[in-house]
Amino acid sequence: MQDKNFDKLAQKFAKNIYGTPKGEIRAAVLWRDLAPALANIGEKKLRILDAGGGFGYFSQKLARLGHEVVLCDISAEMLAQAKEQIEASPTPLAIQLIHAPIQALSVDNHGYFDIILCHAVVEWLVDAKTTMAGLISMLKPNGLFSLMFYNKEAMRFHALVSGNFDYVAADLKVRKKVKLTPTHPLYIQEVKGWFSDWHMSLISQSGVRVIHDYLKKSQPADFDYQKLLQMELEYSQREPYISLGRYVHFLGQSPAV
């Protein structure tokens, strides 16, 4: 088995990430979690790795704040989109593009980082924990690790409330894979175990799309998506809603020494 490369789906994938209400929710929850942690660090310029960051939505956002970013992705098409957007920026952005699998990154070649982002990547990896451990080795003491992963239990619950009982009985396995459905979803407790093994403290945890994916298919014409976003932010850090998030975001901090 091979890790997923989105070259053939780059346009569709980019649009699905941030060009829809669910993309707005994703961006808002992640930034809500990251902003206070950045503020606590202070005004200094940071080295940030966006591992598997696609066209670099957060790479560009962080570079606009004056930070130095390394954006790595296995997809040449995604990085081509990133390059086009970076060059179109009205202000120069300090972003280095690396076309490679994130497993190829190393301290010897790329140094250490104050913050490492890895969003919606692990659920496409054959050996996610080993790959994440490799990223963690590049984190400075007291560094921040932002990991967002596809929640297998939420995947099951969504299938249940949709009446897809045969799919649940088959342990969420189908003969024909949907191209944008992650191949290796993860359980929350499994990922918490990783953080424990890495001796990494968990600063915050949030569910991403704790409401959106369970809405009825038909909504009234005057449905207020801004109200939905407000409710997503309000409930995303409460249980049982965290555990129902289609994705879950963990923000961890590495040991001081």
TrEMBL record:
<dbReference type="InterPro" id="IPR013216">
    <property type="entry name" value="Methyltransf_11"/>
</dbReference>
<comment type="similarity">
    <text>Belongs to the class I-like SAM-binding methyltransferase superfamily. CmoM family.</text>
</comment>
<feature type="binding site">
    <location>
        <position position="73"/>
    </location>
    <ligand>
        <name>S-adenosyl-L-methionine</name>
    </ligand>
</feature>
<keyword id="KW-0819">tRNA processing</keyword>
<keyword id="KW-0808">Transferase</keyword>
<dbReference type="GO" id="GO:0032259">
    <property type="term" value="P:methylation"/>
</dbReference>
<dbReference type="InterPro" id="IPR033664">
    <property type="entry name" value="Cmo5U_methylTrfase"/>
</dbReference>
<dbReference type="Pfam" id="PF08241">
    <property type="entry name" value="Methyltransf_11"/>
</dbReference>
<dbReference type="InterPro" id="IPR029063">
    <property type="entry name" value="SAM-dependent_MTases_sf"/>
</dbReference>
<keyword id="KW-0949">S-adenosyl-L-methionine</keyword>
<feature type="binding site">
    <location>
        <position position="119"/>
    </location>
    <ligand>
        <name>S-adenosyl-L-methionine</name>
    </ligand>
</feature>
<feature type="binding site">
    <location>
        <begin position="52"/>
        <end position="53"/>
    </location>
    <ligand>
        <name>S-adenosyl-L-methionine</name>
    </ligand>
</feature>
<protein>
    <recommendedName>
        <fullName>tRNA 5-carboxymethoxyuridine methyltransferase</fullName>
        <ecNumber>2.1.1.-</ecNumber>
    </recommendedName>
</protein>
<comment type="function">
    <text>Catalyzes the methylation of 5-carboxymethoxyuridine (cmo5U) to form 5-methoxycarbonylmethoxyuridine (mcmo5U) at position 34 in tRNAs.</text>
</comment>
<dbReference type="GO" id="GO:0008168">
    <property type="term" value="F:methyltransferase activity"/>
</dbReference>
<keyword id="KW-0489">Methyltransferase</keyword>
<feature type="domain" description="Methyltransferase type 11">
    <location>
        <begin position="49"/>
        <end position="146"/>
    </location>
</feature>
<feature type="binding site">
    <location>
        <position position="26"/>
    </location>
    <ligand>
        <name>S-adenosyl-L-methionine</name>
    </ligand>
</feature>
